[in-house]
Design a protein that fits this description.
Chain B: Residues 311-344 form a coiled coil. The complex is a heterodimer of chains A (329) and B (691). Chain A has 329 residues and is mainly α. Chain A has helices at residues 3-25, 27-33, 35-48, 57-60, 64-83, 90-100, 106-117, 128-140, 142-156, 191-204, 212-219, 227-236, 238-244, 257-275, 310-313, and strands at 189-190, 224-225. The radius of gyration of chain A is 25 Å and the shape is globular. In chain B, strands 3-5-6-7-8-9-11-13-14-15-16 form an eleven-stranded mixed sheet, with no helix packed on it. Chain B has a seven-stranded mixed sheet with strand order 17-18-19-20-21-22-23, with helices on one face. The model of chain B is unreliable at 1-71, 369-398, 403-410 and 580-604 (pLDDT under 50). Classes of the chains: A mainly alpha (329), B alpha/beta (691).
Chain lengths: 329, 691
Amino acid sequence: MAKPKRKTQRHVLTYMEDAVCQLLENREDISQYGIARFFTEYFNSVCQGTHILFREFSFVQATPHNRVSFLRAFWRCFRTVGKNGDLLTMKEYHCLLQLLCPDFPLELTQKAARIVLMDDAMDCLMSFSDFLFAFQIQFYYSEFLDSVAAIYEDLLSGKNPNTVIVPTSSSGQHRQRPALGEAGMLEGVEASLFYQCLENLCDRHKYSCPPPALVKEALSNVQRLTFYGFLMALSKHHGINQALGALPDKGDLMHDPAMDEELERLLLPFLRLAQVPGLVNSVTASPEASCLPSRTPPRVGSPWRPLHHSRKVDGESDGSTEETDESET
Amino acid sequence: MIPGKYRSVSGRAANNVNCGLHLVIQTSSLPEKNKVRFKKVEFKLNKDTSSFPGRLLQHDLERNYSSRQGDHINLVSSSLSSFPILQRSSEEKILYSDRLSLERQKLTVCPIINGEDHLRLLNFQHNFITRIQNISNLQKLISLDLYDNQIEEISGLSTLRCLRVLLLGKNRIKKISNLENLKSLDVLDLHGNQITKIENINHLCELRVLNLARNFLSHVDNLNGLDSLTELNLRHNQITFVRDVDNLPCLQHLFLSFNNISSFDSVSCLADSSSLSDITFDGNPIAQESWYKHTVLQNMMQLRQLDMKRITEEERRMASVLAKKEEEKKRESHKQSLLKEKRRLTINNVARQWDLQQQRVANIATNEDRKDSDSPQDPCQIDGSTLSAFPEETGPLDSGLNNALQGLSVIDTYLVEVDGDTLSLYGSGALESLDRNWSVQTAGMITTVSFTFIEFDEIVQVLPKLKIKFPNSLHLKFKETNLVMLQQFNALAQLRRIDQLTIDPQGNPVVNFTLWKYYVLFRLSHFSMQKINGTEVTQNDMIMAERLFGILAHVASSELPQYRLISILGDARKKQFQYLLESKGKKPGIINEENNDSKRLVGENTNRATLNYTTRDFYNEKLEEIKEKKKFCKTYIEDLVKEATEINMKNEALQKLWPQMFIELVRDAVIEIRNKNSYMKLCLQQITDQK
């Protein structure tokens, strides 16, 4: 059987295995549910890209599709953070990642941060878009990048670039610092030589690599480059981003009309409260029971908590979508 | 009214009561006929008094001697020496043979007094005499008055063995000395001098009155040997402590006004003196204290007069009552300070253990590659550590306190404290205390629970207990609890209600995140928290929180496949119900609670109910468990795949072979039927064969 087929087959098998595993884990709950329905839902969620939510890291990174789905999910969930303009530290981004994947390793986040910060001042704040694109490259192409790092090191130290290079463990990454002492004037490696090695790598590599043509494009403008310069160039390259298909273009990063609409609906009760003058936030907290996960968004009229002036809020929606002024500009 | 013989006799200061000189002059009984007519102005004495054996009448020494004595006394300067020589008319000599007054004569030196060797009273008041001289011949002298002169040193008295009264007030004497031979001294007045030390008077065993007022004494001691002393005047000095008074068997009156005594301990010897009946302390710092009166009365039961006022029975009773109260208070505060100290030590201990633990974790994290050679000490050693290990910032401890604490053989490794409405837990051992039987009243009053030096993951596990045992706890405080992830706040959602949350930056790195407050508000929005870290939560904060994380919630609820939702929620609920069932049995109240809880769990903003927190340990455990299943699944699927591929192969092979097989089948059939007759015979035979 041809190689590509084997690849896809392997991934299908992964999902099959995982599905059965999930079935085993939640036997009692699912047995009431119906096995056929379970499988349907499972593969539906795989298609939609929601299967990786709150799953362990080993599953999240298992297939390229999983990785893409994860990236997309991260973007969708935390786009608002970016939109708000907050600059966060690497640790905080890592925290956000952990909200979606509890055992996400810190190492990956650190590597991503290094790309953004060019391996300098690791406590610096980063913008959402910078981090996200760098993270995409690092996460999706992790194995590829490990090999590239090894190649870079070799090139720096002047070894023959065409020898077969076996990617070492991920600890190869911290041999990054270019030896500035030797080539004070000439930093990094020559671009064209570098590209040749990459091309060889892509041919041989069993893991996913960025399309060589696009890589060439990214390297076209420079004579020499450093490792992190290269990664930065990759992360900023629109073509590669599009090829991945996980995230929208940088310009559109903050746009997601469907979710924005959703968000507005969620915010409505709060904004209404804000408009009522003199209403302090000391409302009692007995939550209304909206029933267990409904796919439909909560109705506008049903407040999440009863207010002092309950008359004001409940049932007063006349159905029109009110253009509420945002009290928070 | 003071009896006559104790009437005050004084020098010029008779009218000034401040430095009143209480001279107690011991007189033997006076024969009637020697009563003297008292004349104020004139220095004239009744003849009758000429022969009084050894007795001084008080008015003999009255200050009101006229200064006009020039009539009777001639001071003739002699050519022999620089001293003037005193001469009296023989009339005078006969009239006043035993007394001589040279008051206000502007004398700068003592004149030589010839022919008066039987003199008994000599008065040199108000002169400018600098040295006591030329009186060694007056060996019968009983009273010598040198008040208000300029004498700098006591000297020239060694022959006056009969001297009974020596008045040296208001001079410039710096040191008590040269009194060795004056063994009969009865009254010694040294007020208004510059004396700094009590010395050289221990041989004066007949001394009854000693006046050292208005000197520079800073302490009182060296009083032994004064076996007859009944009055001791120490007013207007700088005395800070008093000793040796209990060695004075006859002392009755002690005047310590206007000194520097500030505590009763510095005059504690007074309590041991059984003879003291009259004492003054006014003008001392001690007299300003609230406990002054009753402390003095309590310690000196023999006292009859204090600060010139009689002590009544009522006062004594009050004193003992108050003293008892003081004792109680002191004991109480001693106990309190002991407790406080213990508390502080325990907390220090817990803190140290915590630090070690954190270091150890950090070491493990960073030294993964190399061998961990510098592992921190065993925590067991801490339990035995004594006070000496503590930092020097401890304030001065009572010696008694110190002793008591040395007795603590084991210093606790955790601390549980209830202070009104606050329950404070220090150290992970304290979490077990939640299992104790708390009285409903105490537990009901607790509104604030504070956790310090405890891992948050450990706290998470006892949160259900907290919910049940302390239903009114509305304010949670966390300090040094290792809150590092936003996720951990998810665990707080299981509580009934939180009004206030305080996360101390110390030991909780999560506070350094920009978004942590918003995340808390978002995840715990169903609590409608009012304050986070002391600042009020505004509507804007809530909106912002929702804005930032609302989509996360939406995704977490609506985009998860149904079965995932069930399994996630199922997990969380399972854990809680398990605890509820385990504890307290199947009381109906609890069951209702279960139902309420489940309702509330459902009712909680369910779109974020899926955001749970499992502690790292649990999580890793779960992953371990899953490994087995995964392995099984893998092999199972592989088998299935193998089977499927086999079947597929077979199918394909069949597909390939089938046309050939079909043709052969058809050919065989056709060949068989080619000859109708033989086929018929064959079939019939087959049928008979079968039978």
